[in-house]
């Protein structure tokens, strides 16, 4: 049977600063009609370059296809002139990008952009018919009130709704092949489940092929018929999803699988992480490109590059592919490169109330933001970002905070550090009310309260050297200068696993994981007592994520740190946290010890969050448990229980009466009239 898409020995180069960089080389694969194929690998492996080459979009980024062919059916895409390419894009092949806000023009309505795409591919259709078709597409992808949404601008839609709108626009030309480039990376686990469920339904409904690019192997396990693993611009393995997860035939694939944090990960052991990082395309090693990071590498691997060979219906590029099953059984402990396995201190749930001392306490903390209203309006509306939240964080513990975007997690974190003042309520740090401190006293207090940001790119000044970035706290709070400052910064660099020579280099010379280490070094420079990690690993690849989590766990023990860990990757939050709080629409709705929360969630929302987590095992696939609908507006929250509009167990009482936050088990609190207990 002829393939819908055939890529044969594809090579792509980019012109960078008058030099030529080979981004991908000898890429060959095919996709059949109605098939879902996943491209996986770390950032820098060439996944997105391959997808953009298929669409011939790389030419807008100084890229050139230097070898090979790309065929869509009988059409050779590599030789098509631009005019014919424009008619091909959207009509036969369409793309869903990672950042929907960047894909839509913010100054035009959603409707105008979708109808423009529809009319471009069908000149006979009228404007009215195109608008009706756009509304039908929005309804098909699960967007409520589609005619209203057509009149809205991209900035007025949530991330999940905007991603759905982009899928609707991609479907407007009825494409045979849909390329989805990390379509769920920036989304909450619940919205991710909705998008994945939608893609599955569209595949079945239209017999549409999907090329899904992701670094989340849980997503790949849920979605893929076949998986292609890329590393440093080349394919290193390809096989059916079940075969790849049960018997990987390349050490890199095995490393990726072992790096996954799951709900079964042993919290007393460090996570497995592939040592090192993916090489730059201008500094590739000789022989097998993976050999500097491979636990099984031999002298042959350093000298000669293995070819991608087919055996038993699957492909792999490893000299020892046939021996890998035996090597794999030697045990993961032999592969945890240099990570010392220690028992992790966990609070004793039976007596933690009596023995633990609170470092931070929040008492009825509320933060409301005023909404702009018209001159004639008498009623002033407020965004209820955080509403009457109370809890404590004990010395030495990691408190996790989860919930969808818009639930108030990050706002609560800023209130906790007093980067924003509460509308009402009190924040205590070591029994000191932060609201009573003067500006200078609060600045002194912040030496003990530091933050690790989500974006390792945006959280550092690109014009400063690493030494100045990490050493800035010394300048702000006085103290070390000159030689003493340099020695302190170099000590911090060693502590976070970086070469002290990085002192004189710039942030752009480092990978995302290394930049996050720089941010961590800066955060611990003054020896704080408390760290706030706001989505600190959500933007990182699975192996780099494991490295950073292990680092945070080690620093917590070495420096006796207390942490608030905010995240939407629930499996990661479970692993690092002693207790976890769940937020929904500004309210804290459940708190429990980590294992208790995941094994016996009491609130329907928490149960839905846990059920939405993709399982990284094709043999244990579960049906998507997506929460229906979107999180309501914090400017107009529902009466009673705020989750009732999406809760399958809601009753009349839920609409009339707000549930009280009460204890239902040892250290287990929930705000629900009828908890699952």
* Alpha carbon gyration radius: 26 Å
Q: What shape does the CA trace take?
A: globular
Distinct helical segment count: 24
Binned strand content: 15-25%
Largest beta-sheet details: 8 strands, mixed
Give the uncertain stretches in residue-range form.
329-354
Residue-averaged pLDDT, rounded? 87
How many E-type strands? 24
Structural class: alpha/beta
How far apart are the first and last residues' alpha carbons, in Å? 54 Å
Membrane topology: Peripheral membrane protein
Domain ABC transporter: 7-257, 360-610
InterPro entries: AAA+_ATPase, ABC_Ni/Peptide_Import, ABC_transporter-like_ATP-bd, ABC_transporter-like_CS, Oligopep_ABC_C, P-loop_NTPase
GO molecular function: ATP binding; ATP hydrolysis activity
Brief write-up:
This protein is an alpha/beta fold and 677 residues long.
């Amino acid at each position: 049977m002829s393939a819908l898409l055939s890529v044969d020995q594809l090579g792509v180069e980019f012109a960078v600063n008058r030099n030529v960089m080979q981004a991908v080389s000898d890429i060959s694969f095919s996709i059949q009609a109605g098939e879902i194929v996943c491209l996986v690998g770390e950032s820098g492996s060439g996944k997105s370059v391959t997808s953009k080459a298929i669409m011939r979009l790389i030419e807008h980024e100084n890229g050139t296809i230097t070898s090979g062919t790309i065929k869509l059916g009988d059409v050779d895409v590599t030789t098509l002139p631009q005019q014919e390419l424009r008619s091909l894009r959207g009509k036969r092949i369409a793309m869903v990008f990672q950042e929907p806000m960047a894909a839509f023009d913010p100054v035009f309505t959603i409707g105008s952009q979708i109808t423009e795409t529809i009319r471009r591919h069908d000149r006979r259709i009228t404007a009215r018919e195109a608008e009706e078709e756009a509304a039908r597409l929005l309804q098909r992808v699960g967007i409520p009130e589609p005619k209203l949404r057509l009149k809205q601008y991209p900035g007025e839609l949530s991330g999940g709704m905007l991603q759905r709108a982009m899928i609707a626009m991609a479907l407007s030309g009825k494409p045979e092949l849909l390329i989805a480039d990390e379509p769920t990376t920036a989304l909450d686990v619940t919205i991710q489940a909705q998008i994945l469920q939608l893609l599955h339904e569209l595949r079945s409904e239209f017999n549409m092929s999907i090329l899904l690019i992701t670094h989340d192997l849980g997503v790949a396990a849920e979605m893929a018929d076949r998986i292609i693993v890329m590393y440093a611009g080349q394919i290193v393995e390809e096989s059916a999803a079940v075969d790849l997860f049960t018997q990987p035939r390349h050490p890199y694939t095995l490393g990726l699988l072992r790096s996954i944090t799951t709900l079964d990960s042993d919290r007393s052991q460090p996570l497995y992480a592939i040592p090192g990082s993916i090489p730059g395309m201008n500094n590739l090693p000789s022989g097998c490109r993976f050999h500097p990071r491979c636990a099984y590498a031999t002298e042959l691997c350093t000298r000669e590059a293995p070819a991608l060979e087919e055996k038993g219906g699957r492909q792999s590029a490893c000299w020892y592919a046939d021996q890998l099953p035996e090597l794999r059984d030697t045990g993961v402990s032999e592969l945890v490169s240099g990570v010392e396995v220690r028992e992790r201190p966990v609070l004793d749930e039976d007596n933690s109330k009596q023995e633990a001392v609170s470092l931070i306490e929040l008492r009825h903390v509320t933060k409301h933001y005023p909404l702009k209203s018209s001159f004639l309006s008498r009623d002033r509306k407020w965004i209820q970002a955080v509403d009457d939240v109370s809890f404590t964080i004990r010395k030495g513990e990691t408190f996790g905070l989860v919930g969808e975007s818009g639930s108030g997690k990050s706002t609560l974190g800023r209130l906790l550090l007093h980067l924003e003042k509460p509308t009402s309520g009190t924040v205590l740090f070591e029994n000191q009310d932060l609201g009573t401190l003067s500006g200078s006293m609060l600045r002194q207090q912040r030496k003990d309260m530091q933050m690790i940001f989500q974006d390792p790119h945006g959280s550092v000044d690109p014009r400063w050297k690493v030494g100045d970035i990490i050493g800035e706290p010394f300048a702000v709070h006085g103290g070390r200068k000159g030689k003493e400052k340099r020695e302190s910064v170099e000590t911090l660099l060693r502590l976070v696993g970086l070469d002290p020579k990085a002192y004189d280099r710039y942030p752009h010379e480092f990978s995302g994981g290394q930049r996050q280490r720089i941010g961590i070094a800066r955060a611990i420079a003054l020896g704080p007592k408390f760290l706030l990690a706001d989505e600190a690993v959500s933007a990182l690849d699975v192996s780099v994520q494991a490295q950073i989590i292990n680092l945070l766990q080690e620093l917590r023990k070495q420096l006796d740190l207390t942490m608030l860990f905010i995240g939407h990757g629930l499996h990661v939050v479970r692993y690092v946290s002693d207790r976890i709080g769940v937020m929904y629409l500004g309210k804290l709705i459940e708190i429990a010890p980590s294992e208790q929360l995941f094994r016996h969630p009491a609130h329907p929302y928490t149960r839905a969050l846990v059920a939405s987590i993709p399982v990284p095992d094709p043999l244990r696939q579960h049906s998507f448990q997506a929460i229906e609908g979107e999180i309501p507006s914090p400017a107009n929250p529902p009466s009673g229980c705020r989750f009732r509009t999406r809760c399958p167990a809601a009753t009349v009482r839920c609409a009339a009466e707000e549930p009280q936050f009460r204890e239902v088990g040892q250290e287990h609190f929930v705000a629900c009239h009828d908890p699952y207990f």
